[in-house]
Amino acid sequence: MDRPSMLDGIRVLDLSRVLAGPWAGQLLADYGADVIKVERPGAGDDTRGWGPPWWGPADARMSAYYLSANRGKRSVAIDLATPEGAAMVRQLAAEADVLLENYKVGQLARYGLDAASLMALNPRLVYCSITGYGQDGPLAQAAGYDFAIQATGGLMSLTGEAQGTPGSQPQKVGVAVTDLFTGVYAGTAILAALVERGRTGRGRHIDAALLDVQVAMLANQASNHLVGGGVPRRMGNAHPNIVPYQVFETADGHLVLAIGNDGQFTRFCELAGHAELARDARYASNPQRVAHRNELVPILADWLRTRTTQAWVDLLEPQAVPCAPILDIQGVFAHPQVLARGLRVDLPSDTRVAAPPMPLVRNPMRFDGAAALADLAPPALDQQGDAIRAALARGEGWPTR
């Protein structure tokens, strides 16, 4: 089956580094766009040095972190601070459809590479700026990091052991979730701007801020506060609006029980051998279960300890009672559903050195049954630089792949 390439013909100039911008660029590459990644000479993207672990031989190694966000791109090393480097970027931007950057507000204006300058050169350009706090406001000049934004944006106040648990403290999420959400939000905004450009012929300047995204990500918790007036607090693995919806101990480990409606609760009680509990007025409906959480949860906890995790899964899952074991990452990639869906991919390297294939996680989207996946492995620093610079020097414009 042919790989979906819905963005075939779209040219993306990626000046971003670390995660949010590169994640958006990789998303567009998976959908078929031609992405040129501009990196600092000598060092490249910061994440190239974020190891171990490393992939490849010592003289051509790349960090696993870098590999996760840079599939489908060509790399060219350009010093933007030099007149020659800025001129090369302008040449590329003149024929690009999209430009991604995550410099501090105003920094690219020093080199004539800001949105106003490049959109005057190329009115069709969709220029996406990703920053910590946005293009305006009192913190516009501040550097933004995922960890800090998770703190400032409220996510850490909701994450971690329940408030008052001895020795507990707010926790960050185990991956840089604000960066990743910002990359996805930026990608969808870029696609929307490209659709509009098809009607108007003009691009847009997209202002994507990590803090804005994090506040939007508060979702039902933000709504709980805005509507109810209370301040949501850490609840460990419990849910503020649904009961039972949390982690329980089993005879040999733990189980997620995620009951979302009264019918599921009734089936759970029947399967557990306690059908009478679902008929108790205190627990028959979700609002009542939330009101009587402190009485109900210990009862259920006693039940769950009587069987192993797998025994509960085998009992509940066939009867549509939502539950799941808690897998580590090794377990995830050995899971039969993950294997069946082909979420691990191994792309052959093109670094001109003997190296094993690169193990990567594919784009999760499928189109007409086919996975969207750029077939170009993450590039070594300046891997395509000579060819790109030569094409620009000859005045050929955007270099062909």
TrEMBL record:
List the keywords (alphabetical): Transferase
Note the Gene3D superfamilies from the entry: Crotonobetainyl-coa:carnitine coa-transferase, domain 1, formyl-coa transferase, domain 3
Show the InterPro entries listed in the entry. Answer: CoA-transferase_III_domain, CoA-Trfase_fam_III, CoA-Trfase_III_dom3_sf, CoA-Trfase_III_dom_1_sf
This protein is called CaiB/BaiF CoA-transferase family protein
Organism (species): Leptothrix discophora
